[in-house]
Amino acid sequence: MATETARVALFWEKTFLWGLIAFDTFRKLNIDFDLLSADDIRHGRLNDYDVLFVPGGWASDKIQALGEDGAEAIRSFVAGGGSYLGFCGGAGLALSHKSGLGLAMIGRLPSSVRVPSFSGDIALEPAAPDHPMWRGLPGGGVFHAWWPGQIAPEEGSGIRVLARYGEPGADAYVTDLPVLPQMDWNTWEQRYGINLDPRRLKGEPAVFETRFGEGKVFMSYPHFETPGDTEGHRVLLNILEYLADGKPVAITGGKREGGEAAQAGLEVKALASAIALALKHSVDELVDFGKQNFLWYERNDWILGWRRGVRGVEYSTLHAMLDRLAVVVPKAVDLDKRELDKLLCLRDLASSFFPKAHDLLCLERDAMRLGPISPLKTDDKQIEALREKLFSTSKRCGGLFEEIIDLADEILLPLLREELALEKKTGTEKTGEKTGTQY
């Protein structure tokens, strides 16, 4: 008899780069999952699943996209016995602060004591070594955190800390500064005007859980879905199986294989593919320009490392999303004029964004010659005007950038669903019945 596989829903709303990373890692691990939008959740589709996974990104954006009906649907799902898993921004969405779901009675540490700009690998020390997440890794290990938040559990909150931060690893940065033994953090903090010393993180809660009604709420600031992190992926599978009450979450019998896409209307598809390819070329050219001017470099194959003073995760996000459109649009089966119209609109937004982004990077490069600059505050009126137009003056971003990634996100959702459905169909036909997890 076949073993029932747990069903995982991946929340696809305001996730952008982090949604793509989770999508790819889940596919690599053969996890049985579907993409759910905020509208799907509002209409009750979450009740068909065992676990809701919420990737990183701004929690305030996600709660706004859900609306009160969507937020209440998630609360009801968890209270009724469903499980919630959030990484980084997804963990923040579960919290009790004003932009959260109220699934966990946790507040955030005040900004005066946080380290807001840490990224890279860092040791995790198990605070509960008997927890199922550590199966096969009882001593913890080195994993990845990408600009994590920090929490302050409230008295009597029922929060169980499962891991605490240890020492930074070899690829750790705080803003654009590598974490090196000889760093004089006091001097750099005075120069940058923000907390930088990564020793502030040591011993702080990194992974934690609680209960909400009959359901489990599991939150992690480290990203166990980080590409290439084999041990992190093992922990991810452990967590998902724990949240699914021991049911396997992966489809075994070999990797999924995508089927050949049927031909859409040839004219529509040809134009859509050409637009997607042109968008990829535009973002590739901008990224190359930044490299040539030493504003950033390829930290790995999915994110840039950048100098303080320029937007980095935003350009990384644009690069990832527009690159992915160039891959999935030519393979699409159900591509019609509505999707073409969205791509045409995206092209118009991009044609306004990229020349201005080029000008902004030139101005920021020149300003850096006089010393470090802030990515948000400036006395240069030209820089200020372009930043406001492209990104807004907020840390969380808006402007043309937000319009572009919101529209790209909307276009990608049905195309990735279609790709996933083809893989599932092909995988089912090839392997027959689903069996238990192998790793």
Provide keyphrases for this structure:
11 helices, alpha/beta, globular, disordered C terminus, 16% strand, 42% helix, Rossmann fold, 439 residues, 2 domains, 11-stranded mixed sheet, two-stranded antiparallel sheet
What's the short story on this structure?
The protein has 439 residues and is α/β, with parallel strands linked by helices.
Biggest sheet descriptor: 11 strands, mixed
CATH H-level superfamily of the largest domain = Class I glutamine amidotransferase (GATase) domain
Distance linking N and C termini: 21 Å
What fraction of residues sit in β-strands? Answer: 15-25%
Structural write-up:
By secondary structure, this protein is α/β, with parallel strands linked by helices. It folds into 2 domains: 8-252, Class I glutamine amidotransferase (GATase) domain (Rossmann fold, 3-Layer(aba) Sandwich), CATH 3.40.50.880; 266-421, no CATH class. 42% of the residues lie in helices and 16% in strands. It contains 11 helices and 15 strands. The chain has helices at residues 16-28, 38-42, 59-79, 89-93, 185-192, 230-243, 266-292, 313-328, 337-368, 381-391, 399-431, and strands spanning 8-11, 33-36, 51-54, 83-87, 106-108, 118-126, 141-146, 151-153, 160-168, 173-174, 177-178, 205-212, 215-220, 296-298, 304-306. α7 packs antiparallel against α8, α9 (337-368) runs antiparallel to α10 and α10 packs parallel to α11. The longest helix is centred in the C-terminal third of the chain and has 33 residues, at 399-431. The two termini are 21 Å apart. Residues 254-264 and 433-439 have low confidence and may be disordered.
